[in-house]
Amino acid sequence: MRKRIVVGNWKMNMNNSAAHSLFQSLNNAEIVSSTKIIIAPPSVYLSGFSSNKSKNIYLAAQNCSDNENGAYTGEISASMLYSIGVGYSLVGHSERRQYQNESDLLLKQKINVLIENKVIPIFCCGENLDKRESGDFYKVIQSQLENSLFHLSNSEIKEVVIAYEPVWAIGTGVTASPGQAQEIHAFIRSLLVERYSLETAEEISILYGGSCNASNAKELFMNKDVDGGLIGGAALDVDSFSAIIKSF
Ligand code: 13P
Q: Homologous superfamily of 5-245 in CATH?
């Protein structure tokens, strides 16, 4: 059974006191929901949040190293994340693909190291505006999945969460229409059926991200193949994030 999941990606926002106060508000909100709630704060806060979180909140890193450990100044390993109780990590967010030049091959290595260390990857894929306008977006998404993810075994891929985040919708206020989101989610699921099996495809949660907020979450989450959201800006406010979680 696919899980419903809402992830709050705080990106590089919030100083120490603001971050702790938002996290405390989320902890105290006691959101009654069968939806899995995952927070991805800047990594400096992960350890502190991990020792103070309520049991219905899970933590994700926004990134991790593609190496196991060693002389990689500034990097954080998957085993370190696991050791402080962080169960998830984003991989391949478009901002990292763009600003850190992360390649499909690098992301494949990150996926491997995360799985070896029992941290669940939340793999992000999505096309930019040019590819949307030229109609090449199916090809982009397919190659991102094939190059970084589809080497996994059947049992490994079942652990992964996939997030479709069209780059043109991230932080722009332009959301994919429910129809556009459903079309791509169904396409991703069909690729999973082809590469693995229907049974496997039906176990993998596919989240939508890109200007998802309290007003549009319901119509996005209503779609058959949309299993939740990866939320940026609207995750920085406890009321809007709680409203999104309750939008199923
Ligand atoms: P926004 O919700 O701010 O568009 O960001 C989406 C995103 O990039 C989440 O990872």
A: Aldolase class I (3.20.20.70)
